[in-house]
Amino acid sequence: MLAVTENETMIEAARLRKVYGKFAAVSDVSFRIRRGEITAFLGPNGAGKSTTMKMLTGYLAPTSGKALIAGFDMSLSRREGARRLGYLPENGPLYPDMTPRGLLRFFAEVWGLSAKEIRGRIDEVAQLCDLGSVLNKPIGCLSKGFRQRVGMANVLLRRPEVLILDEPTTGLDPNQILQVRETIRRIGREKTILLSTHILQEVKAVASRVLFLSGGELIFDGTADAFLCGKDPDERFYDLSHQAAEMKTPA
């Protein structure tokens, strides 16, 4: 398969559907995200966001439809797609007794980076995620905000083209939220990012586009400005606006 060019699709859901018995968690969801876009993925609890993200990352097989990363079908070519993907789940696992430097070195070795590459790459991702002051402190002693940034640094080690981030600011205090958002903005200058969130301020702060899921269906796909201003022509936007108003909107 040919390499993806600058303007091509990096994340694609093609009529994705996931059914459990008689319950459709995700119903015929389709969208495309191009290189360099930061897209917010919104919806109330139970809307199907996590299920969709698990299908996109290859952790869950769709009942029907396709999930593609950089053009690779994650059901048929998961290994190729995964090489281009960095996935940070909510409360991603970390080893509290290790330091960020030790954790990053461990995973760099697991992923096959050469000894020559490892030190320079650790320095690069530590700078990108602003970890310089805590690189040699135990992860278990770090704030949740720093732990989230350690998780981001970890998924960036392999230079993925695509990042999928699931609720990266959940449970953080206001200062930590601002720090993690700034990290996402820096990363987004070079990567394609799909960001799941319940926080409308996050949309305004980092995203240029919004996907809104409700009841397993995609009911909004447009610019962040249109979403925040309520300019969607679809009559279902009234329901969407009501749901959005009930979502978290911290100052």
Task: Describe the structure concisely for a colleague.
With 251 residues, the protein is of the alpha/beta class.
Describe this structure in words.
The protein has 251 residues and is of the alpha/beta class. It has two domains: 1-84 and 161-251, P-loop containing nucleotide triphosphate hydrolases (Rossmann fold); 98-159. Helix content is 35%, strand content 25%. It is built from nine helices and ten strands. It has helices spanning 49-57, 78-83, 100-110, 115-128, 144-156, 174-187, 200-206, 224-229, 237-245; strands at 9-20, 23-34, 38-42, 64-69, 72-73, 85-88, 162-166, 192-196, 209-214, 217-223. The strands form two sheets. A six-stranded mixed β-sheet has the order 6-7-8-3-9-10, sandwiched between helices. It has a four-stranded antiparallel β-sheet with strand order 2-1-4-5. Strand 9 and strand 10 form a beta hairpin. Helix 3 (100-110) crosses helix 4, helix 4 (115-128) packs across helix 5 and helix 5 (144-156) runs parallel beside helix 6 (174-187). The termini are far apart. The model is unreliable at 233-239 (pLDDT under 50).
